[in-house]
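task queued by scheduler; priority normal; single chain, no ligands, no partner chains; default sampling; output format set to structure tokens
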Amino acid sequence: MEKIRIAVLGMGYVGLAGGMAYAKHGFKTICTTTTPSKAKNLNKGIPPFYEPELEELVKEMVEKGMLSGSTNNIETIKESDVTFICVGTPSLPDGSADLSAVKDTAKDIGTVLKNKDDYHIVVTKSTIVPGTTENLVLPILEKYSNKKVGRDFGLCMNPEFLRQGQAVHDSLNPDRIVIGEYDKKSGDVLERIYSGYDCPKMRCEIRAAELIKYAANSLLATKITFANEFSRISEKFNIDVYKVMKGVGLDFRINPMFLNAGCGFGGSCFPKDVNAIVALSKKIGAETPLLDAVLYTNELQPMHFVDIIKDTVGDLRGKTVAFLGLSFKPDTDDTRATRALPIIKRLYQEGAHVKAYDPKAYYKFKPLTDLPIEYMDTWEDALKNADFAVVQSDWQVIKDIKPEDFKTLLRNPIVIDGRRSYDPEELIKNGITYRAIGWKNLND
């Protein structure tokens, strides 16, 4: 394999997880950030966020000299052959994606390309709506480089499909790789970079690659919302929605993934990406009633969960809640769009007090609200003398809590489970009042 040098502009989940994987596959990789402390820590082998196994692999790659951090985009691009744009594209108030960081990095790349003789490949990997690479990134690159795409430099779009909480696994073992190419030469270079990845590889035009990312996330969000809607129907008949979705998932055309009912989807991808494609559709005059409903239903689900809590314990005024799990899902410290926030806000509106526990995410959750939440260091401290327990994110350490722990530490042995973290029959057999989304009341 030729020694392709890689620059990754952006040190978030996409940039660092991908950069670590490129390094692991033998490509010298530099990841950039605008935050000096993140670059400094990365060069010590310390990543800026938590993902299982990430710190060990980052440290290994840094010690081998295959991975490093920088705050200097210009020098990093100069030292590379392929540059991946992996900066954030957060939501604007209207739901569309904020492309300011994409524009800035494109300017930096164009500035460097002006004085580069080699055929440099530019790859957009940030999640961007169709047309962004060709209508925004490409003109900026040509303007600042005074060069022509396809002749002097190459251009590709290479979407990521990482699952937070499993970003290391998915970076090293992707289930597919999509290469959207402006020119065949650029696509060939990317295919060489990914030659050591054992998965299906698809090459297509750039706009198709951009839309594939949005279509995939929108479909997964829709599956979650479908399960959540059926959870409400199941509750009316006292049917376990998890059994219903298990039966549905046995159909090979559907499969069981993303059919677990819960408090709703959150994180940095699904809410942002569905909102962005809906906002784009409005601009181009395309109706999206299904995706509109997905977003609407996802906002209803946390409130429905609070209604289940109220139905179980009655008036919440003066009650103390042991709130377990603040991240939007287990195995990540990401709290973006976490369903914990609207649930806790509603609990305080109803007059409750919250003692919260999360093994990794409390320090990211705390700045999201000024509510007088007590942040506990252990789940035992959260349970102690609380009136009941609520599960929002099913970390393994939370799933490992035993029925006797709930009975001993809580004032009342009541568990209201937003993620089906426990075997309901086991808890009920041990004297726990158990309620869950999609299973109305097993104690009757």
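post-processing summary
- The chain has two domains: 6-204, 238-436.
- The chain is about 45% helix and 15% strand.
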